[in-house]
Every structure is written in C-alpha cells, then in structure tokens.
Amino acid sequence: MVCLTICLCNQLLLLMNVSSQRAISLHYNLVTFSLICTTQARAPVPLPSLLSKTDNKELALRPVPSINSISKRMKLNQYRGLLFALLGSILLLCYLYGHTHWANQNKNGFKRLYIPHPISKTKTIDLGFNSFYLAGLDSQHVYLGNRTAPTYFLISNRSLQHQDTMFLKIPDNTKKLSFKCSVLDQQVYLSDGNNGKIYRSTLPDSTMYPFTSGNIPFFTSALAISPKSIVLKTYYERLKQSTLSKLSLEKPFFWVDSTLLEPSVDGFYSCDGSMCLDQTTGRIFYVYRYRNLFLQLDSNLDLVSRGKTIDTISTPHFKIGSYPTNEGTTTTFQSPSFDVNKNACCSDGLLYIYSSLRADNENMEDFNRYAVLDVYRVSDSRYQFSFYVPKQKKQPISSIGIYHKTLYTISDQYLSLYQLGF
To answer: Measuring CA to CA, which residue among 144, 182, 181 is closest to residue 163?
Structure first.
C-alpha cells in the first residue's frame, strides 16, 4: 500500500510538472506521513486487564479476548491506517495540483497584444534524445549540448540540413563532473558550478583547457560575454544570498556586485533566474524566474535599467523550509510554487521572455497548445507585443534561441526552425 502511494505521488508530481527539488521535498513529506500512519497501525494492541472495578468497587473478572479476535483487530487497525495514509496523500496531492495551477486558472490582471503572422515554420528534425539543449548560435551554425553526455557536442548548419558531432576532450579527473556547454564567437565553454570548473577551447579544436589558473567559487550559472570574460551567478555566504560576479582574464580578474540581485522570500530561490546576452548591443539581461522583474546590465555589470514584465506577480509565491539530513540541514521549498518566466533570449535589440502565465485575453486551450513569448525593447525595457510558438507533439519547450530573424526551439527531442515575420 505504501508503494502504491509512492507510485501515485510520483505520477501526479510528473503531471504537475514539479521541479526536481520540490518533488524530492514533497516525496519526503508524503512518504514520512505514510510510514507514520503505517507504524501506528502496526503498533501492538495491549491485552485488556483481567480485572476491573465495578461501580460497587468490587473486583469482577472480565472476559479474556481470543487470539483470533486480537489478530483481526490488529489487521483491521493496520488496514485502516494504510487507507488513511493513502487518502491523505491523495488529498494532499490534489491540493498541491490545484495550487500549482492556480495562476493559470484565474485572472492574472494583464492582457497581451498579439500581432498577425509573427512566425512561419521552416523545418523540424528529430534529435533522437530529449537531453539536448541550445548551447549557442552564430551566423553559420547551431550548437547543441547534451545534459546526460556533457562532452557530446552537436553542430548543425543554420537550415538544419546537416549535422556533425564532436566529442570534447576534458581531463580524466573531471569526466564525472556535470558540465554545461555554451558557445560564443567560436569559443566553446564547459562549466560546472558545483566544483568551480570552467574549460574552454576554440573551434574546431576539441581539446578543452582551463579558462583560468585561479580558483573559481561555487556558481549556479555562467554566461560568456566575450572571449575573456564570463558572468557568474554566485552565492555570497556572508550575506546568505545570490550575487552576480564577473570572471575575467584581465585585471581585475574577479569581482562581485552584491547589490544587483534583490532577495525577497529568501536569498537563494527568490533570486533564481536566467541570463542572456544581446550580441548586437552588448547588453546583459537577468530575468527573474518567480517574479515580474528583469535587469539590464552593461559589460562591467553596471545597472542600466530595471524592467517589469507585463504580469502582476511582484513577489514569489512560495515558502522556504529546512529539513534535517545526514549532513546537517537542507533548505528547499516548503510550499508549491509556479514559474513566472521560464526562459529568455536576446537578439537585435529585443528581449524575448518565455512566460508561464496566461493573460486575461487568452483562452486556456490556446495557452496549453502553444508557448508564449513576450517581446521587450532593449532601449527602454518596454513591452512591445507577444506571439505563440507551437509545442511539438504537445511537449513543453525546454530551450529557445534567436539569431537575427531566425528562432530555434527544442521540444522533447525535436529541434524546430522558424522565421520571424516582424
């Protein structure tokens, strides 16, 4: 019964599209709840006392229950406890499911402006695996990395007619690390923030070399902005919050700006977001994941402007809790949350944000069939319009990229090419 409960929890969490960190937390709570109920149900039933006092304070013998009746009672209590555990888990998951989809089932207080015929589909190819992601774009090629095979590198021409593979060569003592690949100006980068490792090579050379000989602190994401500079999202232990840092091969080699990211609920999860570079203007954008805010920075991490997305979620809708582990305590989500901005990319003075929220002038059917991209102008961070991008095989879009008038998306194992009509 407990196994059935866990399997049901897993299927509902997949249906809810819950992230891995929140799924682990929810599984932990639900399994603990089930085990507690099961343990209590299996607790031995004490034999009743043979003697009891009557109202006249005289001793009277009570009948001794048979072994069969005691066994039946224990089994009944056990089944009752397991049933309560299963029903409680189902009710809790139903609540979480409803709460997760609350934002898209209710009015969100904003409307979108759609333009006619914004994109036209050109080609879709089957990559064979759903672990690919867009690592970079340039005037001739599309570069794809792979989550499960970090050194496996796929290169395609812009029209997706021809694909070539390359295996990046890294030191033997780093082959077990979880690298993420990115490409900028023929420079290939492999980065692993948990271990503070960044390697680089210049195509077509496949041998990776350390980006710098100095120590690199823990970071959660990296964005190459030039052959000699990388922007990192790091964690400032003293302030207990995420910060933006710049790693450079020129002096100063490393510096931190602890004032850019603004914590809300906490200093880590509430500052989560995605970074992108507009190669045309050289501007860096940081788009918050759980609220309607994005930052525009120059190459020195000086703040140019703060912009707001068109939705009304100004504060993250989640709670943070701490749980004991073998290594101490871990902090994770205590309540369900939903993304406001899933991803972002930049090109030709425009910022494209992949939004998770449905506008008041959209119907649910269209919103579920398509991904919606909101477009903002880099010069003044103002909203311009929105457009739909089809989901291949009804699968969510996991990666987006735009180079000039060409849009690339990855849904499950499918890479699609679109031409922009604006």
So the answer is: 144
pLDDT in tens, 263-290: 887 878 888 999 999 998 999 999 999 9
Round to whole Å and give the CA distance between 18 and 22. 6
Rounded Cα gap, residues 378 and 170, in angstroms: 37
d(CA 260, CA 234): 12
Question: Which residue in 412, 312, 381, 309 sits closest to 109, CA to CA?
Answer: 312
Using CB atoms within 10 A of its CB, is residue 276 exposed (0-12), middle (13-18) or buried (19+)? buried
Output the CA angle 347-345-164, nearest 5 degrees: 85
**b/e for 81-106, b at 16 or more Cβ within 10 A?**
bbebbbeebeebbeebbeebeebeee
Q: How far is CA 405 from CA 125, 218, 348, 382, in A?
A: 19, 36, 9, 20
Nearest by Cα to 224 from 146, 302, 135: 135
Nearest to 407 by CA among 368, 352, 362: 352
Check: CB of residue 160 under 8 Å from CB of residue 148.
no
Task: For residue range 67-124, list pLDDT tens digits in order.
Answer: 666 566 666 766 776 777 777 767 766 655 554 444 445 567 899 999 999 999 899 9
Q: DSSP string of 72-89?
A: HHHHHHHHHHHHHHHHHH
Q: For residue 361, what are its two tokens?
A: 């002038």
Beta bridge partners of 119: 420
Question: By the 8 A CB rule, do 196 and 211 touch?
Answer: no
142-180 pLDDT per residue, tens: 999 999 999 999 999 999 999 999 999 998 777 777 899
Q: How many CB atoms lie within 10 A of CB 418?
A: 21
- Sign, Cα dihedral of 93, 97, 102, 105: negative
